[in-house]
Design a protein that fits this description.
Order of helices and strands: HHHH
Shape: elongated
Helix content: over 70%
Number of helices: 4
Structural class: mainly alpha
Strand content: under 5%
Oligomer: single chain
Length: 87
Amino acid sequence: MFRHAKQDSSASGRLHQALIESMPAASAYDPLTAASQLQALHAQRARTSIAAVAQVRLEEMKQDTTCQKRLQKIVDIERSLDGRTPQ
């Protein structure tokens, strides 16, 4: 699936590739590249629907990062309460 998306240089192909790279469970997971590609697609306004999907995924990735940071803070607090040092 990723190889096929990588061969398609159209806006929808680039979107497909970026979406695959943005998914943590994907073997091609590369969030920095995905974010860069999604930002480019959004800025180019390739097609309204493609730009909209890119914008939504970028926002989801931002929220995921925020949640991960909050979760790590909670884990650090719990460890400090248990007498363990945060990693």
